[in-house]
Amino acid sequence: MTNRDSSSTTTQHAGSAGGDPAYARPHKNRSPVGAATPASAVNMGSGGAAAHGDQLDSMLGSLQSDMNRQGVSTKTKGLCAACNKPVVSQMITALGKVWHVEHFTCAHCKMTLGTMSFYEREGKAYCEQDYHNLFAPRCAYCSGPITDKCVTALDKTWHPEHFFCGFCGCNFGDQGFHERDGQAYCREDFLKMFAPKCGGCGQPINDSYISALNRHWHPECFVCWDCQRPFGNMSFFDHDGLPYCEQHYHAKRGSLCADCQQPITGPSIIAMGRKFHPKHFTCAFCLKQLNNVTFKEQNNKPYCHPCFSKLFAGTKMMD
Ligand SMILES: [Zn+2]
Ligand SMILES: [Zn+2]
Ligand SMILES: [Zn+2]
Ligand SMILES: [Zn+2]
Ligand SMILES: [Zn+2]
Ligand SMILES: [Zn+2]
Ligand SMILES: [Zn+2]
Ligand SMILES: [Zn+2]
């Protein structure tokens, strides 16, 4: 029993804020065991005069009637869930139980919660700070408790403002984020850093791609390296790891017919340092097919023997 408690029994009005527990004392202390304590208290409050048991009882009795007049019931409202003693007047009802105001405390720091708002978890009450510190999800970036909006990503929780692109620091727009090795990136940076690069233009590939020649390609970049024409349904040809149409593949490889300029895929005739389709290696005059052994050459053109003789024998003989 403190001075504050004892004096408050005579000076404070019932029902006032603060939940002074002194209202409960006189009632409780009418039991013989506790009778001495309020006695000394009242004595102090009334100038220190000695009080006998009868006087004390009558003083307490008048106090009792004062309180009743002020509308405070001294009837017990149940047993305090903390101390198991009766609760009279000022009480807290919380967690489905009744508490002395001063006994309704934070389960962690023991601070009196009184009428402050509190948080409940598994039947226990916590002050706001402890509740957040103990139970709020933690931000994977700052380790602080997340008490408001929470982002869940990468199997972790984050303050929304602490979940940002690992490269540019933006907070991700509608595009969302992309993950690589536990780090989040905005789409732009992710593609810059990790998207496959096009085998044609070297830029990142964001959408559909063609996989060929052990590389990825923008569809629009997968064209003949020479004429830039797309292949469509045609097959392409690999020359030094680059795609070519059939025509330019053979051109690259020197395997175009010197006569028709079309690729030679079957047998060929090599003559005069050039390649020909066999049927296109013909006499330049009569167009008869030649073989590469018996033709005659004049001015870089092939001729059959008869035509050669007819056309050039005279000149030759005149020489
Ligand atoms: Zn209590
Ligand atoms: Zn606390
Ligand atoms: Zn944070
Ligand atoms: Zn970024
Ligand atoms: Zn490209
Ligand atoms: Zn081409
Ligand atoms: Zn030809
Ligand atoms: Zn001929």
Automatic annotation (TrEMBL):
Query: What Pfam families does UniProt report for this protein, alphabetically?
Result: LIM
Q: What ranges does the record give for the region Disordered, renumbered to this chain?
A: 1-50
Q: Does the keyword ATP-binding apply?
A: no
The biased composition feature labelled Polar residues covers 1-14
Mind telling me which InterPro entries this protein's record contains?
Znf_LIM
GO molecular function terms listed in the Swiss-Prot or TrEMBL record:
metal ion binding
As given in the record, the signal peptide range reads none
Its localization reads:
Cell junction; Cytoplasm
Keywords associated with the record: Cell junction, Cytoplasm, LIM domain, Metal-binding, Phosphoprotein, Repeat, Zinc
Q: Which SMART domains match?
A: LIM
PROSITE patterns noted in UniProt: LIM_DOMAIN_1 (PS00478), LIM_DOMAIN_2 (PS50023)
Quote the protein name from its UniProt record: PXN
Q: Which organism is it from?
A: Acanthosepion pharaonis
